[in-house]
Amino acid sequence: MQKIYILLCLFFSFSSFALAKEPVTKYSIKEIQRLGLEVNGLVLAARSQVNIAEAGVVSASAYPNPEVTVMAGPDAPRLPFELTGPATMQRTVTVSQPIENPFFRQARIGSAEANVEVNRASLDQVRADLAAQLRIRVYELLLRKEQAAMETAIFDVMEEIQRRIKLSVEVGELARFELIRADTEVMTAASRKEAALLSAERARVALFQLTAGALPPDFAIQNSLSEPVELPVLEELYQQVLAANPEILRLEAEQNRTQLRIEQERASVLPSMNILYSNFQDRQFTSNTAGLSVTVPLFYRRRGEINSAIFDSARVRETLEYRRYEINRLLESAWQAMQIAKRRVEMYEGGIIRTAENALRVAEAAFRLGERGFIEVLDTQRILRTARLELLQAYFELQSAAAEIDRLRAHYPKE
């Protein structure tokens, strides 16, 4: 027995030491958002698109390269040697340098730069969406954990009531039917408890997915589900959304790009030129010639490409106007949802929960004294459970509405 006692002491000492070496890491919502924005694959892919667009600016700014043509070969005489003399070698070198249209070049570079802004706005859109999803998932995890804790507490209470009823049935104070009902309620509470625990684990897995597994397995969250929400007034939010919403900024940059594309297509109608220089040499002569090659758009003046660019610009402009209106309505909807959730929280915190808790305490005391039956305790327990679930859901809806508003105004921790 002494050896077993010593081994147990060593085991628990080692376990305590291991727990002390690996404390649970707590993260705030902003830290989880920053972590997700750093490692999420969609954000990394959107950032690569920005790099590709920036490389496109380098390509658009490059000057055209000259073309060099070299031709050489022997001369084969067709007349007698007395007339032509000996055979010889000839060589021709031709250099062609395109002269780029400055209006076309300026529009092409501007279009590439506008494409960079489009991709940057798309990157901001991905970031804002991911940050909002992470925030909602964090509060969903807190919601599921609160629900699991509540269902666990109800299960413990049901087990205690079942134990009391079992003793009463054994001494003959209650009928066995009451014990059967209590057993059923305990099994129902156990089922709800297991479902709540599995829902909490599923919410935790969703966070792992959005952060690409960067969170430690035993992480904890510093925030609480009932923390207050502080946002500017609605009029100020309107201004922030119109100035910072990534989708609006992307469409504005895309509209600028389509306008520059129209200018680029119109500038391409102007004549293009190539400067030519040629050097010819054989045994007797050396010839240097220079010239100018001009492409004249006489028959086809790119009418189709210009019209396509004009219609594309109109499409983007109409989409921009509609999305501005629609995003304002989304902001109003999220604001109204937040106000409704706040009102529900005030109602449940202001008296509904307290009244249900008092009713449950009275019913439990009456049950212990034998003045009330199990059904009264069960009814009051269900009323309190429903009220607490509604309060937790109102908390979650409040935080979800705030997250949606922050998504619309691109308010998230910057990298």
Descriptive key words:
two-stranded parallel ribbon; 10 helices; Outer membrane efflux proteins (OEP); 6 strands; 415 residues
Strands, count = 6
Task: Report the C-alpha radius of gyration, rounded.
Answer: 39 Å
Q: Which sequence of strands runs across the widest sheet?
A: 2-3-5-6
CATH top level? Answer: Mainly Alpha
User: How is the biggest beta sheet arranged?
Assistant: 4 strands, antiparallel
What does this structure look like?
The chain has 415 residues and is an alpha+beta fold. Helix content is 71%, strand content 10%. It contains ten helices and six strands. β5 (272-281) and β6 form a beta hairpin. The longest helix is centred in the first third of the chain and has 69 residues, at 102-170. The radius of gyration is 39 Å and the shape is elongated.
What's the SSE blueprint?
Layout: H1 2-21, E1 26-27, H2 29-39, H3 41-61, E2 67-74, H4 81-84, E3 89-99, H5 102-170, H6 176-210, E4 220-221, H7 234-244, H8 246-267, E5 272-281, E6 286-295, H9 303-368, H10 374-408
Parallel strand pairs: 1-4
Antiparallel strand pairs: 2-3, 3-5, 5-6
Helix pairs in contact: 2-5, 3-5, 5-6, 5-8, 5-10, 7-9, 8-9, 9-10
